Each structure stands twice: as structure tokens, then as C-alpha cells.
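Researcher: Sequence of Phasin follows. Predict its structure.
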Amino acid sequence: MSKTTENTPEFLENVSSALDPSKAIEYVSAATEKGVEQTKEAYAKVKTGAEETQKALEASFETAKAVGSNLSLKTIAVLRANTEAAFSHFEALVSVKSPSEFVELQTAFVRKQVEQTVEQAKELQAAATKAAEDISRPIKSAFEKAVKELKVA
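Model: Prediction complete. C-alpha cells:
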């Protein structure tokens, strides 16, 4: 028991220093400053993320606009080629002199149109696939960057 009594003044001194109002104010002030600093850092990260997302969306929209125009032009070119082929075919049919010649011209035209349509579909599909990749690239890179930053934090 003598050890307890020997430690009593030290204990009281520690307790009184812990309950010292000036130290309590310092502690609360330090904790508040730390909280404010962490809030500022979090806000800066959110703000940066929002700005990067906005830039990525703007880039995607610009790409979509350009790619949409390109796809429209390709589609118009395909339609024009098919229309011209059809008019040429009708001109040839007008000058037909026999039913066998008509069947021969018609068969050749249909075969050629089917082959051409398959080729055009492949070209348009490739262009559409590339367009989708181009449009999604800015968003994808922004997302990957955000995930990477979350893993680091």
C-alpha cells in the first residue's frame, strides 16, 4: 500500500494536468484544425475528380459528334452506291430483248447486291465498333484513374 500512497501526488498531478482547461482547448483546437485540413483535402480530391469526369464527358461527346458524322457519311455513301447500282440495273433491264436476258441480268444483279451488302455491313460494323471504342475511351481512362487513386489511398 505504501506504493499507492507514494504515487498519489504524481497521479493527482497527471490528472490535474489532463484536466487543465488550457490544454483541453489546445487539444480541441488541434483536433478541429486536423478535421478542417482533412475536409479540405477530401474536397480537393472530390473537386479534382469531378473536373476530370467533366473533361472526360466533354471529350466523349466531342468524339461522339465526330464519329456520328463519320458514320452518317459512310451510311450515305453506302445508300448512294446502292441507289446508283439499282438505277444502272433498271436501265439495263429496259434494254432487255428476251426473257432469258432479263433473268440473267436480274440474277447477276441480285448476286452482286448480296455480296456488296455483306461487304458494306462488315465495313459499317467495323466503323461502329471503332466508334464505340473511341467514344468510351475517355470515360474508361477516367474511371481507371479513379480506381487506381482509390487503391493508393
